[in-house]
Structure formats: structure tokens, C-alpha cells
Design brief:
The protein has 80 residues and is an all-alpha fold. Helix content is 84%, strand content 0%. The chain contains 3 helices and no strands. Helix 1 packs across helix 3. It is globular, with a radius of gyration of 12 Å. The chain starts with a helix and ends with a helix.
């Protein structure tokens, strides 16, 4: 059940990140996959900094931060 919740949060974070970073998205499917990867990156970054995400909203913010960061980095590498 935890895996399903993780995937749903990641998909939602990818969709939101695509909306927030207009023009840097990779289409709906690409953004959804980036959201799942961003959830992993966000979790890793939050642990490194010492932050803990509680509840659904906290995990969504964490995944969204990771997805936005990943979209930003991918956008920067594609322009070159």
C-alpha cells in the first residue's frame, strides 16, 4: 500500500511541477515519470538537510520540490 501511495504522490507532483515550470515540461507522461523520480530525489534531499515530511501534504511538498529541481536540471542540460 505504501508503494501505491508513493506512486500516486509522485505522479501528482510531476503533474504539478509541469504546471509550475511552464515551458520546461516534457509532456504529460514525461512529467509524471519525472514526478516519481523527483519524489525519490526530494526524499533524499530532505533527509540530507535534516527535514522530515509528515502526512500527505508534507510528502507531496517533498516530491514536488524534487520534481521541480529535476525539471530545472533537465531543462538546463537540454539547452546546451
Amino acid at each position: 500500500m505504501e508503494l501505491i501511495a508513493f506512486l500516486i504522490i509522485g505522479l501528482l507532483a510531476g503533474w504539478l511541477a509541469g504546471k509550475i515550470t511552464r515551458g520546461r515540461g516534457f509532456g504529460l507522461l514525461g512529467n509524471l515519470l519525472i514526478g516519481v523520480l523527483g519524489a525519490l530525489i526530494g526524499g533524499l534531499l530532505f533527509r540530507v538537510v535534516g527535514l522530515v515530511a509528515y502526512g500527505l501534504l508534507g510528502r507531496l511538498v517533498m516530491a514536488l520540490a524534487g520534481a521541480i529541481l529535476l525539471l530545472y536540471l533537465l531543462g538546463r542540460t537540454q539547452r546546451r
